[in-house]
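Holo prediction — 7PJ.
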Amino acid sequence: MYLRCGRFKLSLERPLVMGVVNVTPDSFSDGGLHFDTASAVAHARRLIDEGADLLDIGGESTRPGAAPVALEEERRRVLPVLEAFAGGNVPVSVDTRKPELMREAIAAGAAMVNDITALSAAGALDAVAGTPAAVCLMHMQGEPGTMQVNPSYADVVSEVRDYLGQRIAAAEKAGIARDRIVVDPGFGFGKTLEHNLALLRALGEFRLPGVALMAGLSRKAMLGRLTGREPRDRVPASVAAALLAVQNGAQIVRVHDVAATRDALAVWQAVKT
Ligand code: 7PJ
């Protein structure tokens, strides 16, 4: 199985590691650490050296309670970092929900759009459809500002799966073939700890035909709840979570700690039959 991703054709025979590059002053996991272009570029280069298969560059924090960012500011944060890597050997994803920035990023060489709103903004499907870019369609209940106030589902697994199925159908109708589509249940996006654990247990049910599956658990609050640790001290828990996600069917893991995740996956790969 392959994922078509801009000028890349990525084999999904072994799990891929997507390294997170936050160009934001307020991300929960590394808030402000890589806020200027030069330090974000240096961080991205380090993730490539550690073995990242993809980079995900984002300029809007979507942590619970975060405020939205204006287009100009998001563009100013994201595009210079993207441009520094767009011509290289590692495909670059842009983490945005804004159709205008999707278009600009793809024109600047982004190979993937990672959208926590699954291309639901007006014009978002069209921004991606006529391009070679891949797209990650993620599930979120509510909006980042309020999503963790009272997440509620009758059956979290079937509701998230049905939603992703609907977004795949919308993407296909707009002209995005399945071999360009990734789905992601959106751990922590309008979900309690119990919801997140149910999704992780049932991750295999999100392997939909011809579509790749991504999981992002890295340093998230659910791991803080389980370990009592602050985000920067959640690396071992994050590696365990990435490993469980891959064991349960994830083909791409979105992580902050690329080297540690790669090591764990090397062991997994060797043991796997
Ligand atoms: C995710 C994401 C995720 C996808 C963020 C964080 C919060 N995109 N963007 N999946 N999380 N596709 O980095 O922990 O889980 S922002």
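READOUT: The chain has a mean pLDDT of 96.
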